[in-house]
Amino acid sequence: MKYDRILIRYGELSTKGKNRNHFITHLKRNIRGVLKEFKDISIQGGHDRMFILLNGEDSEPIMEELSKVFGIQSFSLAVKTEKQIEEMKEVGLTLVKQLYHEGATFKVSTRRGDKSFELDTNDINQAIGAYILTNLEGIKVNVKNPDINLIVDVRSDGVYMSSEIIRGAGGLPVGSSGKAMLMLSGGIDSPVAGYLTMKRGVKVEAVHFHSPPFTSERAKQKAIDLAQKMAGYNGFVKMHVVPFTKIQEIIHKQIPEGYSMTATRRMMLRITDEIRRMNNGLAIVTGESLGQVASQTLESMIAINDVTATPILRPLISMDKLEIIDIAKQIDTFEISNLPYEDCCTIFTPPAPKTRPKLDKMQYFESKVDFESLIQEAVQNVETIIVSSENKSREDAFSDLL
Q1: What is this structure's pTM?
Q2: Sorted alphabetically, which SUPFAM superfamilies does this protein's record hold (predicted)?
């Protein structure tokens, strides 16, 4: 018997009450986006379940894509039957036979969403279980740790039978919690911060600072490659590449050395906030972890945050480096981040940056330079590209359509 559909379970979305449709709509849109290459499938979104009708498409690559979609608690290959116990027995036996090997054990797990069905949960388990024991020689029951778990889901429109539950990515559908700008460097931390933010339903656009000739095209491509990995969780990432050379040179020449790192971060935040405003974002995301480097002390954060009232999301703030690396490996960004190409956060790095910068001093030093005109010039010359999960990048000629 060939499975004809994939059953998707929502998990956290089930607790959203009257707002559930909002989240389901985003989930369905995101699933349709990552599965757009599979032309024959159809998607049916229900109140507490979603189904992908395969219509002959290969289930393996579809399930691989689904494993990255936030908002899915779990999913299973399934077969739909009529609400007839005899048909349920036959289908159950066929599914278990397909997985059976010598010495294998099984159990039947029934969920009866349709309370009007003539048999209760125990009756269904016993009826199907007894039929399998009678017709499949050698198989035994093990209700605690079976090799095969036959799942029977009795719904109002039919019975869905499956034999394996695959864990999904969890979280909330990307886009259901609004949009934010991710400050994406070439390092380990910011892609992880972007991943965790997307997992809470926030759509991210990346802002990358590029300072040629101090940073190379290879460094820029490294950031694009990181964005491509993140695009795998939502189909594409809109990426804004900011020309930052002139501002960094001015900071290097005119801001006292100990405050140059703080000034650099303040300028990056001001530019990112301007791009956020122009693209209707609601927050800014950074990969900061408290105490990791000089610009990530609480005093530094106060001095840097001073330039905006926009919410700054720092999903890594309490993590240590090893925890961050574990996630980077899990989402396949670690090796890219480790490539030895410089980025603008590491050039002009002072030997002794202030770890407790004074806000009034910082404001005084900046007041001596017309940074506003430099910021507007940088924003006007931003290069915006769309990075998709299939193609690394393409020009933003059609970005307004997205």
Answers
A1: 0.85
A2: Adenine nucleotide alpha hydrolases-like (SSF52402), THUMP domain-like (SSF143437)
Helix (H) or strand (E) holding 159: strand 158-162
Asked whether 282 and 309 are in contact (CB, 8 A), the reply is no
56 known member of a binding site: no
Tell me the CA distances in angstroms from 130 to 7, 151, 348, one per residue in order.
Answer: 26, 15, 74
Beta bridge partners of residue 313, listed in sequence order: 285
276, 284 Cβ separation under 8 angstroms: yes
Tell me which residue has tokens 């001073």: 306
Which residues, at least 6 apart from 260, have a Cβ–Cβ distance to it below 8 Å? 251, 252, 348, 350, 353
* pLDDT digit string, tens, across residues 213-269: 888 889 999 999 999 999 988 778 999 999 999 999 999 999 998 999 999 999 999
* 385 contacts: CB under 8 Å, gap ≥ 6: 224, 238, 239, 241, 393, 394, 395, 396
E-strand spans in 193-252? 203-210, 236-243
Per-residue tokens: 313: 């999301």
Q: Does residue 183 have a known ligand-binding role? A: yes
Across 56-84, b (16+ Cβ under 10 Å) vs e yields: ebebeebeebbebbbbbbebbbbbbbebe
- The candidate with the shortest Cα–Cα distance to 362, out of 253, 245, 249, 255, is 255
Q: Is 209 annotated as ligand-binding?
A: yes
**Whole-angstrom distance, CA of residue 234 vs CA of residue 68:** 8
Place of tokens 């985003």: 26
Sheet holding 236-243, edge to edge: 312-313, 283-285, 179-183, 203-210, 236-243, 383-388, 394-395
296 is in an annotated binding site: yes
**Ligand-binding site membership of 208 (annotated):** yes
Residues of the chain with pLDDT under 70: 14-16, 344-345, 347, 390-402
pLDDT at 66: 94
Would you state the pLDDT for residue 96? 95
Count the Cβ atoms, other than its own, within 10 Å of residue 120: 12
- What CA–CA distance (Å, rounded) separates 312 from 285? 6
Does 1 belong to an annotated binding site? no
68's tokens: 């990255």
- CA-wise closest residue to 6 among 65, 81, 62, 88: 62
CA distance 28 to 40: 16
